[in-house]
Amino acid sequence: MDKVHIVSWLLTRRCNLHCSYCRISRDYKKRPLSYPSLKDYERREISTSSIIEALRRFKIHNPDCFHIFYGGEPFLRADLPDIINYCNKEKIQYTIITNNSDEVQPAIDKLLLKTDYVVGLTSSVDPIVVAGQNVSTDQYKKSIKGLEKFAKLRDVIQDLVAEITATKESISSLYDLVKMLTDMGVNSDITVVDIAKSDFYDFSNVTDKTVLVPKVPEVYEIFHRIAEDQLNVHMAGVLLDRMYSILPSDLDCKIEDDVHNLTIDADGTIRLCLRIRGVFTPANFNVINFMLDDGHLHPGLKSSLARDKSFTCRNCNWTCMIMSKIISENEKYNEKLLHLEKRQYGISSSS
Q1: In order of start, what are the domains of the chain with their CATH numbers?
Q2: Which of 20, 211, 246, 334 has the most CB atoms around its CB within 10 Å?
Q3: Residue 156: pLDDT band by 50, 70, 90 thresholds?
Q4: What is the pLDDT of residue 226?
Q5: pLDDT digits (tens, 9 = 90+) for 224-243
Q6: 269 or 337: which carries more pLDDT confidence?
């Protein structure tokens, strides 16, 4: 059907943190020659006007399209209030994914002052095992420190979400963390750690397969308990079963059959997906020419994605891609993704 339900934006490659498992804000050793350097991304960073034009086109294509504003750290973009104000004005659904660290708090406060409201904000809160870890690490800043700041944000953000990434070591703590967040009135978006299966996988710097969450009965029981107890997890009833089925990292998204998900890089080019930049697609498509004026995807985009997928992809476990595929199969699940009961434009969650 080629209907995009979720768009992931790498608004910038810049970040105030340098987490060991992330390649987005670094030049890694075996980066493919066709991939730009971090400095190239900084020089060519997508303009505000291009972002807004692409958002306009996506709304024509699918008025219910959900936009995820990633980085790097998106709050490092000075124009983020302009982007969010446009989304609010046009009733475009979105969330902003931030590391929520001390350094970005002034930018979060500025956004709240320069917008009438913020619909969605997602903060990293991982079930890390603190014992034996250096609590000054960037991972700690993104997790425990991020959790501490939820008390401040939950009264001013309509849909506050915790992005939880579990590892083999931390999966046993997942239920308790999600239960605690549910009791706080915070929704959770559960993912499991992924690995870079080749140098084309430029999102993750993890190559150690032993950190992956295994497909074992204990993990199934954790997922089942979260769904059965109706904890606040995005699309838990259908999503967690599919997540378990592709563990440890074996998702075939079928993007070549149905373009249900798109990712836009910091330089405005269209990526194969969040995990892989690709080669052919970024060379041929950007945020202006990926779609025709009538809202239809450019006829060459699908074949370009298919070529990149065949050439570079060796499967993954990206939760967002599973979500958009589920919505593509049955659009009723779009409401579960968006938490529409909380997304009353212009009315804060504290009202």
Answers
A1: 6-338 (3.20.20.70)
A2: 334
A3: confident
A4: 96
A5: 999 999 999 988 889 999 99
A6: 269
